[in-house]
Amino acid sequence: MKKLKLLSLALVLMSGSLLAQNYDILIKGGHIIDPANKIDQVMDLAIKGNKIAAIEKKISANQAKKVVDASGLIVSPGLIDMHTHNFYGTVHNRYLANSFTAVPPDGFTFRSGVTTVVDAGSPGWRNFELYKSQIIDPSKTRVLCFLNIVGAGMSGGHREQHIDDMNPKMTAMVAKQNKDHVVGVKLAHFMGYDWTPTELAVEAGKIGSIPVMIDFGGSNPELPLDKLFLEKLRPGDIFTHAYAHVNGRTPIVAENGKVRDYVFKAQKRGIVFDVGHGGGSFLFEQAVPAIQQGLKPDVISTDLHTGSMNGGMKNINNVMSKFLNMGLSIQEVIAATTSQPAKYIQRKELGHLSVGGLADITLLNMRKGDFGFIDTRGKRMKGNQKLECELTLREGKVVYDLNGLASSDWK
User: What are the φ and ψ backbone dihedral angles of 137, each rounded to 5 degrees?
Assistant: First the structure.
């Protein structure tokens, strides 16, 4: 009888122990900032498999196989970088289309808390199949894409001037055939005084029911920016390099330091303003007065490639930090790198921390100190706060761990 009681007790304890560890990972004590679900407080988050299993004020550590102490850290949805260039390859003189200036996603995403990148038009409809097999399929990072209206993609120079290679029907067809990966249409680097490329890109967007991202400029004389915003683009279309001042494009901040009136009208109309920092497309002389006057970015992105990553841009954490020091709140900065880009690329499953949703999660450390930030003309802005990625999870798996938060101590 005594043995039977002991056996029963052992079974109860064993079943209790098994039930206790019903989560794979528990992130405890972090400040969750999830703009999509309006969460902005210290909470615990539990993961089972590749999904978020629970978000509660307190979850017992005994319920998880692995516990991550996130005290003092920000827990956000996995970051989305909506403007990157990832079509790396070995073809000479092809700029960002299967050539040396683009970068492989996994080398530069997880260490910055990015779980999803959106390539801004490196491939076109002619070479998307190669892009998919060479970049999308082998990457652990989720790779989405704006399809260039130029069939040959962003191959640089004269190749991006061929209006005859801008085929809206073929672009939309390839986009529809690859709707799991293609989220929009891109126009960039056209240098003529001609609205035709813009109109062809928008036509492709209409046929495919997807947004258009436009890198506007290069025309002499300049094409009127107000006409682009108020007549040519549709609500939901994206104006990238918003805080640039480049040849062939009217800057959004005029010579008198004021944001042009029609720029506010455009944002109110639904034109999306994307940072797209890049190697030559972000100036404090544009960004600071614009933000002070209320023109904040809808999306914060990098325009990542070899020409930007070693300059003033560096990575998405650095770009986010610039906007923190220019006056945006941490909540606004995280929204602009999670829920807002997810909305504009029509990916409702991304950019939020929801029970039952994918466990793409980023832990950020807000460092305090004396820091310097550089724009694309080499001008410095000082700041006292800087974001640094501590831990990245992609569908429930730890893919980057700066200080071993998810690791056991060596003995």
Answer: -65, -45
Q: What is the tens place of the pLDDT at every residue in 155-179?
A: 999 999 999 999 999 999 999 999 9
- Which amino acid appears at position 322 of this protein? K
Output DSSP code: residue 216.
-
DSSP state of 187: E
| Domain extent listing, the chain | 79-344
- Element holding 398 (H helix, E strand): strand 397-401
Residue 176, number of CB atoms within 10 A of its CB: 13
pLDDT tens digit sequence for 87-96? 999 999 999 9
C-alpha 33, offset from chain centre = 16
Q: Which residue has the tokens 């405890």?
A: 28
Burial of 138 (0-12, 13-18, 19+ CB in 10 A): exposed
- The CATH T-level fold of domain 79-344 is TIM Barrel (3.20.20)
Q: Is the pTM of this model over 0.90?
A: yes
Q: What is the DSSP letter of 135?
A: I
